[in-house]
Amino acid sequence: xxxxxxxxxxxxxxxxxxxxxxxxxxxxxxxxxxxxxxxxxxxxxxxxxxxxxxxxxxxxxxxxxxxxxxxxxxxxxxxxxxxxxxxxxxxxxxxxxxxxxxxxxxxxxxxxxxxxxxxxxxxxxxxxxxxxxxxxxxxxxxxxxxxxxxxxxxxxxxxxxxxxxxxxxxxxxxxxxxxxxxxxxxxxxxxxxxxxxxxxxxxxxxxxxxxxxxxxxxxxxxxxxxxxxxxxxxxxxxxxxxxxxxxxxxxxxxxxxxxxxxxxxxxxxxxxxxxxxxxxxxxxxxxxxxxxxxxxxxxxxxxxxxxxxxxxxxxxxxxxxx
Length: 322
Hints:
Elements (H helix, E strand, L loop, with lengths): L1 E4 L3 H12 L9 E5 L6 H11 L3 E5 L5 H11 L4 E3 L5 E2 L4 H12 L3 E8 L4 H11 L1 H4 L3 H4 L4 E2 L4 E6 H6 L11 H11 L4 E11 L5 H22 L8 H18 L6 H15 L6 H31 L9
Parallel strand pairs: 1-2, 2-3, 6-9
Antiparallel strand pairs: 4-8, 5-9, 6-8, 7-9
Helix pairs in contact: 1-2, 5-13, 10-13, 11-12, 11-13, 12-13
């Protein structure tokens, strides 16, 4: 198992504990690949290294997720490599179920369904927004119901040989490295499957500011991935269109006619209605879902458009957030 960790001191011990608690399989290696951090992540990783035989803390001076995963790939001795996120907790049967699905399907990668969860009102609202169809865009890894082939997947249980055959993760991708890797696996003739029995809890960003940085990064690197592989899905164009509609409506309302304000107002009404009909949420969480959905849409779309502009205009390189 490989766990990229950077400023993840709070969740790292839980992620490692869930990795070591797997049933019906022998967990013989857990590599914590630690990037430069300011919250004591390295100290937590070293303590876990000393306290558990299979756990090994590995320095990742480059700091990136792809670099961390490639470090684990180089060190791995097992035929199966499992990616673990420091913000996630694996269910006890995760590895055994994934290996069984891999044997059944012949897949090179078996992915999970991501279950966003939160601790406080804002984080819970963000989790609800991520789970809603307006937040997930219908992505299989958020709403999958059946064992099926997919274009990409959350986390991943990989055949080590397949990863090495395609060169591992591309270090040029600071985000969307999973989608880019899965694209190369498929192009090389391998299969990527989603198993809905693999349900992994994920703690999203706890603030709207953190969510904004994260989704701007996602949009930026998704456009880079689309440019690299000349492929884009229609649902991935929804957020850029929302940005153009909202911004364009405001500009036209100010400069041409107040009637154009219907565009941004209509968008706000749409997400407010979606939030109001969300089950299992308190009134406060429904209210907070509105800015959470708006943040996800507008920042993802802005990142995509900014990356599109940066390409032909050769602007200064963009440095992603942590």
